[in-house]
Amino acid sequence: MFKLVAEQENARTGILKTAHGKIETPFFMPVATKGAVKLVSNSELEEAGTKCIICNAYLLSISPGTKIVKKAGGIHKFIGWNKGIFTDSGGFQTLSEKFLIKADEKGVTFKNPFDKSTSFLSPEKAVEIQNLLESDVAMCLDDVPLHGSTLTRIKESAERTTRWAERCKNAHKNKKQLLFGICQGGLNEKLRQKSSKEIAKIEFDGNAIGGLCIGETNSERNKMVKVSNSQFQKDKPRYLMGVGSPKDILECISHGVDIFDSCFPARIARHRTAMTSKGNINILNARFAKDFKPLDKKCECFTCQNHSRAFIRHLAKTKEENSLRLLSIHNISFVQKIAKEAKLAIKENRFDKMVKDFKRNKQKVF
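User: That's the sequence. What structure does it adopt?
Assistant: Structure tokens below.
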């Protein structure tokens, strides 16, 4: 299911085998919450180098519903994507007042965002939904504490997450689908270590680090990543949920993470920001009005091969939505290029140099 190919200190590259093909790690998944990445088509995702996306199982179970997805032949056929798909259980939605009503030992009571009715999601139900969707990788339902929660709440969350993980494992019936466990523990080293160790003992197909990237500093996040990875099995994939900036991805690869997901690249594109090898740029800046260079001269994406900074700025200034699409394509391509280069660098034993070069070339947003 997962095979390590090369290592350089803690950084590693490997192959994750799924029902829809093999995916080389480390890899980044754009977020397709309802089955589509905002403003970017499936063919554009594929052209950008995307091998896997992540959808939200809870929201898909509400609309269009698992019956419709199953009738279509599963989530891959329903959304028209024949590569890898992870599904998040819905645990992340417990952080939002828009969704959460209450969480207890039985599960989570949510507010339906579409019709304001209530719905209940137990660990067993979360797995059943994902079994029916037929994603390649299902995620356990976890109890996610808010950033800055009390030690009592963090401890409750970690212990409940372990119990829910065991229930998810027992409920999982789709033999073609992989199941990943998720650890919690906040920023408390002892609780994070204990949770990671308990999740590893349940023997999932992969292990995920949850409850981070929601307000802590990079150094705090990195410390917890190292704590979790020290407890996870070396021969199983490690997934850090919620990281999507190139710098953060490279840092976490160096700490042994294999899989990433985030809406960050597409979200900052919708704020007219482009990632480049010299740092992020705000395309609305007046200095780009007569700049006929691509967003990044080293980038081979559709946007950079066909359009200039001046043209994209013109579209953005006139509120043409295609500007957001072109920036989204570029940012997703840029992150995928970083992941691709990281894989090669690890194999060639020069990953440390790649990280140093990247940090040295980075400049402030201008």
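Residues 2-89+123-262 form a domain with the TIM Barrel fold (CATH 3.20.20.105).
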